UniProtKB/TrEMBL annotation:
Domain named ABC transmembrane type-1: residues: 17-311
Source domain of life: Bacteria
Cellular location(s): Cell membrane
Entry protein name: ABC transporter ATP-binding protein
Membrane topology: Multi-pass membrane protein
Pfam short name (any one): ABC_tran
Transmembrane regions: 12-35, 66-87, 144-162, 168-186, 252-273, 279-299
Lineage start: Bacteria, Pseudomonadati, Pseudomonadota, Alphaproteobacteria, Caulobacterales
Keywords assigned by UniProt, alphabetized: ATP-binding, Membrane, Nucleotide-binding, Transmembrane, Transmembrane helix
Source organism per UniProt: Asticcacaulis aquaticus
SMART domains (UniProt xref): AAA
Keyword Membrane carried by entry: yes
Length: 587
C-alpha cells in the first residue's frame, strides 16, 4: 500500500482527499439520519418530551411534524451528493491508476532484455496488463475508500449506541472478536484462491496465444482436440480457484449477518426488559436497533471487501515483481554516440545463455564494407553471434569494437541506429506497407520511401495492390507472400541506410522469380555496407570477403570460399551437403 501511495496515488492526493472527505460525509449523514429517529419518535409520539426537546433546536421541538422529516430529507440529500462525489472521484483516480500501470508494464516489457523476455511467458504479461491492474485499482481506490467509510459507520454507530445504552453496547462489542476470527478465516481462503486464479489466468492467456500462434501446426497435425483439452484443463483449474474464492466470499457475508442477527435478538430481549422498567424509550430502542442494523450492514460490506483487498494486493505483488525487473543491457554512464568506424572487431568474445557456453573465444576483424558469411551446422552459434552486435545480449567476456571504440562505450540508440536487420521470416506490423517500410526511419519523405521500394524491387507488386503503399498488410503481414514480405523488410533496411547489416538468409533455394528478385535486392543492399550474413546459399558464400565456419561455438575454419574448399575440412563437407546446389556444379 505504501508503494501504491508513493508511486501512483500521491499524484492524485487532491482527488483522494475529496473521495475520503465524501466517504466520511456519507458515514456522518447516514448516522445523522438514524440519530434523528430517537428525538423524532420521542417528540412525535409525545414520549419523555423534556429529554428529546433538549437534544434538538427549539424550532424543531416546536413543530416536529414538519421539521423532523425535513431535516431527515436534507441529511439524505447531503448523503446523495457525497455519494456522487465519492463515486466520481474514486473512478477518476482508479482508472488513471490502471492506465498508468498498464503503460508502465508495457514500457517495462518493451525495454526488457531479450534474455528476460525469452524466459517470461507472454501470457503472464498479458493477464497482468489486462486484469491485475484492474484488481489493484479496485483494492487501492474503491477498497480503501469503502474501508474508511464503513469503518467510520461502524465506529460512529457504536459511539451512538453507547450514548443510548453503554451496558448493552459493551455486550454487543463482545461479539467483535468472534466476527474478526470468522472474517480472518475467510480472508486466508480468499487470498489463496485469488493467487491460484491469477496464476491460472496467465497460464490460460499463454495457452490461447500459443494455440493461435501455432494454428497451422495444430491443424496439420489434427491436434485441435488436444489443444481444446489442454485449454479446458487450465479453465477447469482456474474455475476451481474462482469457485473456492467465490464460496469463501459468499460465506463470509451471511456468517457476519447471522452473527449480527443473533446479537440483534439478544439486544431486543435486553432492551425489552429495560423498557419494562422504564429505563429505555421507544425512540431510543428504535434508534438503537437502526444503529445496530447500520453497523451490521457495514460489517457485511467490510467482509466483502476482504476478497477485493486480497485479490488487489496479490495482483499488486505480481505487478511489482514484473515492474521491478530492470534491464541489464543499458548505456554506460559515460556512453557516447557511435561515430564512423573503419572496422568491426571481435576480440576473444565468449557467450553463454545462463550456464551453457554457446560461443568460445571468437576473434576476427571485419573491415568496413566487407561481407562476412557465417556458416556451420545447426546450433553452432551463428544467430547468437549476430545477436551480440546490436547488444541483444552482452558477451560474457572479450570485447567487440567498432573502430577503436568498445561496444559498451557507445549508446545503445546510436549503436542500433547504425544496424539494419533482415531476418529469414521478416516481421511486419499490422499497418500499411508505407508505415512498415518507414518503421526504422519515422518521418521519411515519400521520395525516400519510393526509392527504397525501387531498390528492394518491390514496386511491381505494390503497384498492383488496390491501395498501393497504403495497403494494410494484416497481422504479421498475413496478406502478403513470403517473398513480398522479404522485399518490404529489405526496403525497410534500404530506407534505414545503416552502415552495418545483419542478414539471416532465407533457407529456400533460388527457384522462383520472386526469390531471384529478393536475392538481387539483398545484393544491392549489401553493396557498400559491412554485412554479417548467416549464409545458406552457395552464391552468397562464394562472394563473401570472409567466411567464418563455426562448430560448437568456435571458429574452426576461416577464409574465402576457394581457400576453404582447398582445406577440404568442415566447410568443404558443408558445402556439399548444406548449400542449395552441389559445389562441383556451382563452381
Ligand atoms: N534463448 C536461448 N536460450 C538458451 N539457449 C539458446 C537460446 N538461443 C539459442 N540457444 C542455444 O544456443 C546454441 C546456439 O544457437 P544458435 O541459434 O546461435 O545456433 P545457429 O548456429 O544459429 O543454429 P541454426 O543454424 O539452427 O539457426 C544452441 O545450442 C541453442 O540451443
Amino acid at each position: 500500500m505504501q508503494r501504491v501511495w508513493r508511486d501512483y496515488l500521491q499524484a492524485f492526493k487532491g482527488f483522494l482527499a475529496l473521495a475520503i472527505g465524501c466517504a466520511i460525509m456519507v458515514a456522518i449523514s447516514t448516522q445523522f439520519v438514524i440519530w434523528c429517529l430517537k428525538p423524532g419518535i420521542e417528540l412525535l409520539f409525545g414520549e419523555s418530551d423534556s429529554a428529546a426537546a433538549s437534544e434538538v433546536p427549539a424550532f424543531v421541538a416546536a413543530n416536529p411534524l414538519i421539521w423532523v422529516p425535513v431535516v431527515m430529507i436534507a441529511a439524505t440529500l447531503v448523503r446523495l451528493i457525497a455519494q456522487l462525489g465519492l463515486a466520481t472521484s474514486v473512478n477518476k483516480v482508479g482508472h488513471r491508476l490502471v492506465g498508468r500501470i498498464q503503460s508502465q508494464l508495457f514500457g517495462n516489457l518493451i525495454h526488457a532484455d531479450l534474455g528476460h523476455l525469452n524466459k517470461a511467458h507472454s501470457g503472464s504479461y498479458l493477464s497482468s496488463v489486462l486484469f491485475d491492474a484492474g484488481l489493484m485499482r479496485e483494492a487501492t481506490t474503491n477498497g480503501v475508500v469503502n474501508y474508511v467509510q464503513h469503518t467510520g459507520i461502524v465506529v460512529a454507530a457504536l459511539v451512538s449506541m453507547a450514548q443510548i445504552d453503554w451496558r448493552m453496547t459493551l455486550g454487543v462489542l463482545l461479539i467483535g472478536p468472534v466476527i474478526g476470527a470468522v472474517l480472518g478465516q475467510y480472508n486466508r481462503r480468499t487470498k489463496k484462491a485469488a493467487q491460484g486464479a491469477m496464476d491460472e489466468t496467465s497460464t490460460l492467456s499463454t495457452a490461447i496465444m500459443e494455440s493461435l500462434d501455432g494454428v497451422k501446426i495444430v491443424k496439420i497435425n489434427n491436434r485441435e482436440a488436444y489443444e481444446q483439452a489442454r485449454v479446458d484443463a487450465v479453465i477447469e483449474r482456474r474455475q476451481k480457484h474462482v469457485i473456492k474464492g467465490a464460496n469463501a466470499r459468499a460465506s463470509a457475508a451471511p456468517m457476519t449477518e447471522a452473527l449480527t442477527t443473533i446479537v440483534l435478538a439478544l439486544v431486543v430481549a435486553y432492551a425489552g426488559w429495560r423498557a419494562q422498567s422504564g429505563a429505555m424509550t421507544l425512540g431510543g430502542f428504535t434508534a438503537y436497533i437502526a444503529f445496530l442494523g447500520a453497523a451490521g450492514q457495514s460489517l457485511r460490506q467490510l467482509a466483502n471487501l476482504q476478497t477485493v483487498m486480497a485479490e488487489g494486493f496479490t495482483a499488486a505483488r505480481r505487478l511489482f515483481t514484473a515492474l521491478d525487473v530492470a534491464p541489464e543491457i543499458t548505456d554506460a554512464p559515460d556512453a557516447k554516440p557511435l561515430g564512423a568506424f573503419d572496422r568491426v572487431t571481435f576480440d576473444r568474445v565468449s557467450f553463454a545463455y545462463g550456464d551453457a557456453p554457446v560461443l568460445r573465444d571468437i576473434s576476427f576483424e571485419a573491415r568496413a564494407g566487407q561481407s562476412i558469411a557465417l556458416v556451420g551446422p545447426s546450433g553452432s552459434g551463428k544467430s547468437t553471434l549476430l545477436n551480440l552486435l546490436p547488444r541483444f545480449y552482452d558477451a560474457v567476456s572479450g570485447d567487440i569494437r567498432f573502430g577503436d571504440t568498445p561496444q559498451r562505450a557507445v549508446t545503445l540508440n546510436s549503436l542500433r541506429d547504425r544496424i539494419a536487420l533482415v531476418s529469414q521470416d521478416p516481421f511486419l506490423f499490422d499497418d500499411t506497407i508505407r508505415a512498415n517500410i518507414a518503421y526504422g526511419k519515422p518521418g521519411a519523405s515519400d521520395d525516400a520511401i519510393a526509392q527504397a521500394v525501387r531498390d528492394a524491387a518491390a514496386e511491381d507488386f505494390i503497384a498492383e495492390l488496390p491501395q498501393g503503399l497504403d495497403t494494410r498488410v494484416g497481422e504479421g503481414g498475413s496478406r502478403l507472400s513470403g517473398g513480398q514480405k522479404q522485399r518490404i523488410a529489405i526496403a525497410r533496411a534500404f530506407l534505414k541506410d545503416a552502415p552495418l547489416l545483419l542478414l539471416d538468409e532465407a533457407t529456400s533455394a533460388l527457384d522462383t522469380q520472386s526469390e531471384i528478385k529478393v536475392q538481387q535486392a539483398l545484393e544491392r543492399l549489401m553493396a557498400g555496407r559491412t554485412t554479417f550474413i548467416i549464409a545458406h546459399r552457395l552464391s552468397t558464400v562464394r562472394h563473401a570477403d570472409q567466411i567464418l565456419v563455426l562448430k560448437d561455438g568456435e571458429i574452426v575454419e576461416r577464409g574465402t570460399h576457394d581457400q576453404l574448399l582447398n582445406l577440404n575440412g568442415l566447410y568443404a563437407e558443408l558445402a556439399q551437403t548444406q548449400f542449395a546446389r552441389p559445389v562441383a556444379e556451382a563452381v
